[in-house]
Write a structure and sequence with these properties.
single chain, alpha/beta, 8-stranded parallel β-barrel, 12 helices, binds phosphoenolpyruvate, binds manganese (II) ion
Length: about 350
């Protein structure tokens, strides 16, 4: 925001405003004389409370707002979340949400086993890729539409919603015909033609953060979806590329917290891809929830040793109830709830 001071402002009034801003942790700068009076710019985003204070400050005559490039994704400076509703599942509400399932759908039996275990652990969404964005063309690319059908049927049998990736603009409508939530992957987060097509498919979109995307770039991608008409966007942090080789990617708990101050969109965390191996998934999941994630997107497989994609990081199905218990415990610590396995069993009448 730009603050123009009135002409009677004593020398140094502009510096005093910058000092106050600095005490609030807000950087800013003096604007050169082109305004014909003292003027300062405080870097956006300025929290709503601070904005009100500066507007009311002595000698502030006029306030100019730089037009926002991401008006639909930003919050108004307050920590608030606009929940995304997927049927009766609310993402970004009081309850933490778990989405679980295999990296890729490989067979009807595999996805059925994953769906059953996910539902028993209190998951509300079933994940699984039918179109896989693989690094090399010789790698398993997914089973396509048949996999979408198995995913949908397994989810329906267990009362789950479906989240699955659309890789290219042409397949968005087909994915939307089977999925409740369209996933946009890390590799294609900035593919604008895909974002535009996904935004028109009539489903909420789960937007993974690109491997090296800043929060502003991630929100820019969300803005494409929202301006295109997507009925909801859920961000998903999945780790970025760093120097570290002990993990596959670096889960950015900092951006989970920072995003909460900058955007009203719900944010899930995917601890599986940054972990790269099973033993690290639950610790990263716990950290993400403690940092404010609205839930988790987790890979789990009935037999990870035979998985055609991302087996080493897949949780065993037996581990899902433990993850669910940890979600409930951390949820309690951060003022959220996770109904977990017990409630899921009760709902199923077991
Ligand atoms: C996935 O969820 O299996 C996936 C491919 O994720 P990402 O786009 O984050 O790599
Ligand atoms: Mn995967």
């Amino acid at each position: 925001m730009i603050l123009l001071l009135d002409k009677t402002a004593p020398e140094g009034a502009d510096r005093e405003i910058l000092r106050v801003a600095a005490r609030l942790g807000l950087p800013g700068k003096l604007l050169s004389g082109s305004w014909g009076r003292q003027a300062v710019e405080i870097d956006d985003p300025v929290p709503a409370r601070a904005q009100r204070m500066f507007r009311a400050a002595a000698y502030v005559e006029e306030v100019l707002d730089r037009p926002s490039a991401t008006p639909l994704s930003e919050n108004d400076g307050e920590e608030m979340v606009t929940p995304v509703r997927v049927g009766d599942v609310v993402i970004g509400g009081d309850e933490l949400v778990l989405a679980a399932g295999p990296c890729a759908v490989e067979s009807e039996e595999q996805v059925e086993a994953a769906a059953r275990a996910a539902a028993r652990s209190g998951a509300r969404l079933l994940r699984g890729g039918a179109f896989k964005p693989r690094t090399r063309p010789g790698d398993f690319q997914g089973l396509g539409v048949e996999a979408l059908r198995w995913l949908r049927e397994a989810a329906d049998r267990h009362g789950l919603k479906v989240v699955t990736e659309a890789l290219d603009p042409a397949s968005c409508d087909e994915v939307a015909a089977y999925a409740d939530v369209i996933q946009i992957g890390a590799r294609t987060m900035q593919a604008t033609s895909l974002l535009k097509a996904a935004s028109r498919a009539g489903r909420p979109v789960l937007l993974k953060r690109g491997l090296s995307a800043t929060l502003e770039e991630w929100m820019g991608a969300a803005e494409y979806l929202l301006q295109g008409g997507a009925p909801g966007v859920i961000l998903c942090e999945r780790g970025s590329r760093s120097f570290e080789t002990a993990t596959r990617f670096s889960l950015d708990v900092g951006v989970l917290a920072a995003a909460r101050l900058r955007t009203h969109l719900p944010i899930l965390a995917d601890p599986s891809h940054p972990a790269g191996r099973r033993a690290l998934v639950r610790p990263l999941a716990r950290a993400a929830l403690a940092a404010g994630a609205d839930g988790l997107l987790v890979e789990a497989h009935p037999d990870p040793s035979c998985a055609r994609c991302d087996g080493p990081q897949a949780l065993l199905l037996d581990e899902l109830p433990h993850l669910a218990q940890e979600m409930a415990a951390i949820g309690e610590a951060v003022g959220r709830r996770f109904a977990g396995p017990r409630a899921a069993r009760a709902a199923a009448g077991a």
